[in-house]
UniProtKB/TrEMBL annotation:
Keywords: Glycosidase, Hydrolase. The keyword Methyltransferase does not apply. GO terms for molecular function: hydrolase activity, acting on glycosyl bonds. Pfam families: ADP_ribosyl_GH. This is ADP-ribosylglycohydrolase family protein. It is an enzyme of class 3 (hydrolase). It comes from the Bacteria. Transmembrane segments: none annotated. Its EC number is 3.2.2.-. The lineage of its organism: Bacteria, Bacillati, Actinomycetota, Actinomycetes, Kitasatosporales.
Length: 296
């Protein structure tokens, strides 16, 4: 039973978080740091499981864990506390692949978390429109699936602590709503667009809804973006397209997302958070679960 002060489905949130971390760690394997692009392409096409014994997760998971901690403790997004937990996550391990903006912002928030109000909008002259608020938010959407308005509203509160630009916020809303709809068994790209604020992210989700699922994922990524521009509108539409293409099958969804390459830890984290909100990680091969770095 959920008490009134702790609304939401924490089991669904946990399923989504476990899957998000798996997607993040799996996706990270395909970066050129670990295997040259030509080899990565061939291995993804052949569905060859990455051979490394440990798949480390990255900033996507570190910040999703921080957000989960706030929601577990408060039952809602307590923004100053969230700013502090983001900063603590960064401070604990700065080598998790954080973007430039977070390297600037998060050390400042460690000493004065409440300053997110002035510091986040000052990033990149108008706030970050990157994919950082979207990549960590699927478990929040899963948690609040019973109330789409609440899921969207809490997603906004979680986003603006670091990503103040409307497109950065819209990316978070789209992913949170997608995860919520996924748990409800109502996930379609059209329904996500309906609940996403107007702008480039929403336009991208509407474009994704027009791409037939028979399309090869690499071709879809060409049309929708694969996150290589590190913007929410370049990342979220494709990640949600593969999630909608493979609801109920996390492993297949992740292979399809990996075919898009680009910011592949983040696209895979988003796809996995949405699909895994329903499936959890039980359906993927056992060695995937063993190799993913534990959440601690
Ligand atoms: Mg990352």
């Amino acid at each position: 039973m959920n008490s009134p002060s702790r609304p939401g489905d924490s089991a669904a949130a946990r399923r989504s978080l476990e899957a998000l971390a798996l997607g993040d760690a799996f996706g990270e394997r395909w970066f050129p740091l670990f295997r040259p692009p030509r080899q990565a392409y061939a291995e993804v096409r052949a569905r060859r499981t990455p051979h490394e014994p440990v798949w480390h997760w990255t900033d996507d998971t570190a910040l999703a864990l921080a957000l989960q901690r706030v929601l577990d403790e408060y039952g809602h997004v307590e923004q100053d506390r969230l700013a502090l937990y983001f900063a603590l996550a960064f401070d604990a391990d700065q080598a998790r692949g954080y973007g430039h903006g977070m390297h600037v912002l998060l050390p400042e928030l460690l000493t004065s978390p409440a300053d997110w109000r002035t510091l986040a909008p000052g990033l990149f002259e108008g706030g970050s429109l990157g994919n950082g608020a979207a990549m960590r938010v699927a478990p929040l959407g899963a948690r609040f699936h019973a109330d789409l308005g609440l899921a969207a509203g809490q997603a906004v509160l979680s986003a603006v602590v670091t990503h103040a630009h409307p497109e950065g916020v819209a990316g978070a809303v789209a992913v949170a709503v997608a995860a919520a709809l996924s748990v409800r068994g109502e996930f379609t790209l059209e329904a996500v667009a309906e609940h996403t604020p107007q702008g480039a992210v929403r336009d991208g989700v509407l474009r994704a809804a027009q791409v037939p699922f028979a399309t090869d994922p690499w071709k879809s990524a060409d049309l929708l973006g694969n996150g290589s521009r590190i913007r929410a509108d370049d990342t979220v539409p494709f990640a949600l397209w593969t999630a909608a293409r493979h609801p109920g099958d996390l492993e297949t969804a992740l292979w399809a997302t990996a075919e898009g390459f680009g910011d592949v830890d983040t696209t895979c984290a988003i796809t996995a958070g949405v699909v895994g909100a329903v499936t959890g990680v039980e359906g993927v091969p056992a060695e995937w679960r063993l190799r993913r770095e534990p959440l601690g």
